[in-house]
């Protein structure tokens, strides 16, 4: 680094932006919730992009003082990139209200086009500084996704997210043994040799290791990918789709457990991610379920409000999803449903 760049950085008062990425279910929302609830004294504007039609993450992000902008009608790296630019523009007009910006991408996003946004638009580049791309990696599930062979021209998002990372939060180390951690670390190193890897469980990372770290290095990116600033074309794996269900009524607790458990046991290789908020008969509390492949967790959510309509919102993301089958399976769990005997 020259004296000139040091001086330039010292006077750089642009707002730092962190891009939080990582494959489906790797722990992005868990980290976001940590950041939003920790007493760090920072004012963070959050932009959240969710994959799936029914918008569940907004209910799973904890209440916080911070402002949260939802972008649920497309993928941040392609269809709603215009929305991202508009939100950033609106934020810049009231930059006295926050100290930094955090963008959580979907689990299927390519971080490169999101990063490009900070270099290709002059107004944005003059006001905002891409601080780091922080990638969450699920130590228990990442290897098969890295191994997936995609059709010609189609990106492997899990690989891209690691390749572009300035920091890797190697999460869910509680679910695997040392040998698996070593194997995952060596796969990460093969994709992105110099990256700093921070092993964690439940995304318990010290914030100073991921926020305002000045780690994004355009020169390094251009050395790896000379077309980074000019090549805006990328192709998602269209065989990965989502099915969202939004159904009024209450479900039978036993039946929904049995159905979801059986579904993920038998189809969990193809169902990468599932999550939902359920109205279980006889309970005043919402039920939240979180599935990552075959691993299923259920937790109690907030209480239903008095006049609130009991409804169930579920999303499944993966391959070979059959909407009819999922709708029928869920309908059989509803209290009003006639169950075949
Ligand atoms: N055992 C274990 N579970 C974790 C850990 N981190 C997160 N989880 C759980 O994994 C599930 C997915 O975590 P999220 O934070 O929602 O993951 P995400 O990356 O935001 O998921 P998408 O937004 O769907 O891509 C949740 O049930 C979390 O509680 C961890 O380190 N260990």
TrEMBL record:
Record field: catalytic activity: GTP + H2O = GDP + phosphate + H(+)
Q: Which Gene3D superfamilies match?
A: CobW-like, C-terminal domain (3.30.1220.10), P-loop containing nucleotide triphosphate hydrolases (3.40.50.300)
**Keyword Lyase appears in the UniProt entry:** no
Transmembrane segment boundaries: none
- Please indicate which superkingdom the organism of origin belongs to: Bacteria
Q: Which residues form the signal peptide?
A: none
Q: Where is the CobW C-terminal domain?
A: 240-334
Arranged from A to Z, the UniProt key words for this protein are: Chaperone, Hydrolase, Nucleotide-binding
One of this protein's Pfam families, by short name? CobW_C
InterPro entries linked: CobW-likC_sf (IPR036627), CobW-like_C (IPR011629), CobW/HypB/UreG_nucleotide-bd (IPR003495), P-loop_NTPase (IPR027417), Zinc-reg_GTPase_activator (IPR051316)
- Please report which protein family the annotation says this sequence is part of: Belongs to the SIMIBI class G3E GTPase family. ZNG1 subfamily.
According to UniProt, the name of this protein is: GTP-binding protein
